[in-house]
Amino acid sequence: MRSDAPAGRPNQLFRNLNSKIALIPMMLVALVVFLGGTVWTVVYSFTNSKLLPRLKFVGLEQYERLWDAPRWIISIQNLAIYGILSLIFSLVIGFVLAALMDQKIRFENTFRTIFLYPFALSFIVTGLVWQWVLNPEYGVQFIVRSLGFTSFQFDPLYNADIVIYGILIAGLWQGTGLVMCLMLAGLRGIDEDIWKAARVDGIPMWRTYIFIIIPMMRPVFITTLVLIASSIVKVYDLVVAQTSGGPGIASEVPAKYVYDYMFQAQNLGQGFAASTMMLITVAIIVIPWAYLEFGGKKRG
């Protein structure tokens, strides 16, 4: 047994050698571009870089300025509102649509294509489309008023108090189809015997979904949450296409704050500090997911 062990180790080392060699460029890119770029951003967030990066450290000064800026605070508030509502409505609407599609309805492929089609569009296109739809001069408000309801008012993109909800509508329209497909794939993976057993026991369908099906779909929900949360943190195109951050700074988001300071205000240090805060937000989302997904399996 001992004499075979050393011979087995080289065999394991050279097993699937071609696949391991093919992975080398991707690993180098990940290390140099992603990891290196992340470290570079964090380091320069502690400097006084302006137009060009320079290693003149100022401690936490950039972060103090960041959290003292009303524009950043508004962007965080908008991201919180958009993120929480987007998570809730995306999951609820997506799951309900998936549950309806799972009933083997007629023209299922057609409906699935219709619901998923908005996800194929870019956020810029989606933002422009919904900018026209929500425009009071020729959008929903104009159409309803032309029907005789002259007092009807619906102009969220021009009202600073509710502008973030207008952006939310466009985001839900584009992203809910993907959530529906993920949920539908999870539902189709449920054993048919579970449904039969629930019907034999006389359990109502809504209780079957809540207490049996949804707990079984936990991995699907976790993956969907991570995908939605990641897209929420980096939301930028939708805001620029619909409102450009207006009215005023009412619809500012962190990603736009970063872009404006790095490429327009020529304040790289401030942009790097904001980017680092976004990185921390993503880490708060991804690390618990990775622990739940891989830590639990490893212990198992």
From TrEMBL:
It is a multi-pass membrane protein. Residues 76-291 form the ABC transmembrane type-1 domain. One of its GO terms (cellular component) is plasma membrane. Keywords: Cell membrane, Membrane, Transmembrane, Transmembrane helix, Transport. It comes from the Bacteria. CDD domains: TM_PBP2. Pfam families: BPD_transp_1. Its main location: membrane. The chain crosses the membrane at residues 21-46, 79-101, 113-133, 162-187, 208-233, 272-292. It is found in: Cell membrane. One of its GO terms (biological process) is transmembrane transport. Belongs to the binding-protein-dependent transport system permease family. PANTHER family: ABC TRANSPORTER PERMEASE PROTEIN (PTHR30193:SF42). This is Sugar ABC transporter permease. It comes from Rhizobium straminoryzae.
